[in-house]
Structures are given as C-alpha cells and as structure tokens.
Amino acid sequence: MVTRDTPDPAEAVPAPRVPGMTASAFFSSPGVERVYYESGGAGSSVVFIHGIGGGNSSMQWQKNAQVLTANHKVFVLDLPGFARSGARPILYDNTVYIAAIENFLKNVVKEPAAIVCSSLGCAYSTKIAVEKPELISKLLLVSPTGIDRLVNPPNPGFYDSLTNGILGPVLYNVLKSPSGIGFFLYNQVYLDWKLASDDIIKLYQGNLEGSAKGYPVFAFISQYANQSVKDLWGRVTQPARIIWGTEDVNTPASGAQGFLELKKVPLDIIKGRAIPNDESPGQFNSLMLEFLK
What we know:
Blueprint: E1 3-4, E2 23-29, E3 32-41, E4 44-49, E5 72-77, H1 94-109, E6 113-118, H2 120-131, E7 136-142, H3 156-163, H4 167-175, H5 178-189, H6 198-207, H7 214-221, E8 240-245, H8 256-262, E9 267-270, H9 276-279, H10 281-292
Parallel strand pairs: 4-5, 4-6, 6-7, 7-8, 8-9
Antiparallel strand pairs: 1-2, 2-3, 3-5
Helix pairs in contact: 1-2, 5-6
C-alpha cells in the first residue's frame, strides 16, 4: 500500500489535533482509499488504536499520547470510517479494520510496535499479534472485548434494514444529535458526567458529520465489527497487560476473568467507564509508562 505524506490538493491533510503529535498524513488500505493518522516523538514505536463506536476517533488518547513522545515514536490513527478518515457507503466489518491496522504497521510504522488499544481495537490487535507476531512487540489492552462480549455473528437482515430503508437514517439522525451524543456520553462513556463537556459533544458531532459516517455505526450494531479472541488470546506470546474501568457498562470489568483464565497477565482496574484512560489519565499514564519502559 502507498503512504501519501503529501496527498492530492483535494485531500489536504488537516493539522494534528492530539497533543504531542507534530505531523499528519493518510495511508491506503484494501477497500478504503485513505486512513488518517498523526505522529510525534522519537524512539521505539507505539501505536494507539481507538475503539469502535459512534463519533470515536484518535482523540480518545488526547490525555495519553504526549507523555510517550520523549522516548517513543508515537502514532494515533482514525480507523476506517471514523473522524478524519472519512467514510463511504461500504460494509465496515472486522476484516476492514484488521487489514487497515496490519497495513499501517507494515507500511507506515515499519518496525515492531507496542500497541495501546481499546475495546474492539484490542480484539483486532490480538488477532494480528498472533498471526503476524513480527508486527507487534507489546499489547496494552484497555477494556478489551472478544471473550464474552462482541463475539456474536453478524445480523445481515438488520444491517439491510438499516442501509436500505428509513430506519437507518432516522436512527442515525437521533444518534448524531447533541442530545443523542450527550445521552451516549453520559450513560456509556463517562462515569464523571462533567467530562462530557460541550466541546466533547461538538467533537463527536464533527466526527459524525456526513451521511456515510452512519455505515460504521450500522455495521457495529449489526455485529459485523465483532471479533472473537477465544482461540487467540491464549496464543499471544508478546508481553501484555490489561487495564479496565471500574464502571464499564458495555464491557464490565468482570469480563477480565475470562481473559485471565486463558492467559495470565497483569490486570489493573482504575476509575472510569468505557475509556478509563481519559477519566483517570494520571494513573493510566503511570501504568502505561511502566509497561512500555
């Protein structure tokens, strides 16, 4: 795949927005013309991978990436269909995300990288770590899925009703409205509701702008983004660690037991819901630095 650090004028690269990142570019991956990423720092490579959810982006790591730039080359990316990567009316299933991460590691990073990942991003990274171990040196999983959560098979009938009927546009308009985003952030993302500020709501709104941005959401709620790691997690050979939020709603911390039964790794449970790295950044960053040193 071709990395385009100087894209066509029609695809001008926006300035980095994650603190500590000093450069931005697009790369291409099968089925998607461009995927956006930012980078900064120098040293051994660390790649941050966000989870799958409406309005998600590399900004999930806005309080974490910068602390690594003194000793690491840091990359953050918007997965296909999300935020600055744009979206098209295609099926954003697990294979699209796995291929994008794998191509990014091969053709942009070009050396074994430590992965800091969240939710379904952990399942995708685990699969690559097992099947292409030369690409990944360490795994730091944040509220991972793939053992008992987000493992069900796709529901093609539901997906068809979302993409070819009135249900999809109606649902998407509700989801991307300020009240819809606020409800999502207050009830599923943040334990401390004050973190769901007006600026964060506007950020999520911007990430969802454009009708095709609904397609990753439709694929997710139709189970197409799911990835099981039941047969993979126990085969991971790289150093790994798990960090979980105390009050995660969709992926409760009790799910850690399923992971530890298959492979014993250090486990830390810190205050937060879906993204404890954002709610308890000081504690998270200390654990991350200790793991990556």
